UniProtKB/TrEMBL annotation:
This is Uncharacterized protein. Residues 1-15 have a biased composition (Polar residues). Residues 1-26 are annotated as: Disordered. It comes from the Bacteria.
Amino acid sequence: MFSQALQTMEQQISGQPAAPPTPAPAPTAAMVEAMLSQLSPAQRAELQIISQVAPLLQQGIQLLQQPDRTAAERGWAAQGLAQAAEQAAAGEAPGSPWLAAAAALRQVSAWLQGTPADLSQLAEPYQSLIAQMLEGSNNE
């Protein structure tokens, strides 16, 4: 990486056109599979749950950050999140990672309906995940 930057600077100084930088290779499926294989079965299950729930949470957070959205639009989204929470929690035993996911969905649903935001109500990893989503949407 450093040698490539140095080479580009030398080309620019000498007046030669600099070659476009070579993009870093994207992780291959084999690399991702190798990383996932190092997780415990419980961690893999939790990661799968988060990957299913995170897009729903992100949509809710984005809607919270759009003041021009109507109460009806927020209510519709809140209802969708509440239904997803019910599905996530259905038939789950205490301690199930699906229950934490359902709680996060319910919390964002409540925020859309006007309940004051309180991240302390959320379990990890959802507390950190939603904090990052909130921070990310404020920086855009």
